[in-house]
Amino acid sequence: MVKEYRTLYQRGIEEIIIEKSRFIGYSTPIISEEEAIKFIEEIKTKHKDATHNVPAYIVGERNEIQRYSDDGEPSGTAGIPSLEVLKKEDLRNVAIVVTRYFGGIKLGAGGLIRAYTKGAKVALDAGKIVIKRVYQMIHIKVDYTLLGKLQNEILQNNYLINNTEYDDSVHFFVYVQWNEVETFKKQVVEWTNAQCFLEEKQEEYLTELDGKIVFT
To answer: Rounded to two decimals, what is the model's pTM?
Structure first.
């Protein structure tokens, strides 16, 4: 399991005009090549009257699948530049399509590369780049006398409490970054003077946008 990777938060769309040609950049997070192909076909159907619909996508935590097409543009001027934007941003599980409506002015090879690069970039910006990071759920069981102190310490140290349950004891369920688990557990022991029960639960990816966890 890759401990963290960059991807998109949501679908994005942005339009730019370059030398009278319209470039519409579309982006989306995906989880499979099938999803990427479905997304590309959706955009191609939506813009079947466009001059070109240039797709690129990367699938897999380790970039196992990388695909692109120039869709009729001169070889190397559209698909590869779009894919390179994904790779430069170090993204995983992302698909983009840059749609072009020709405006009557030829851009030349260099102009096309710059245009599709910009079209891909604005599409990604619209979709918002996020980090998917592995967090471990830590279950902490303490006596009611420690409820306020422990809750305060957890929050003041910027850990995220997912849930709190109450029976004969208090149960905190806290998300902790994968590389901070041992440090956190030692802190809890100190905060409670070892009057606690600690249990490591499941690992899962959480989404970080601008340094803050967001739930989708």
So the answer is: 0.86
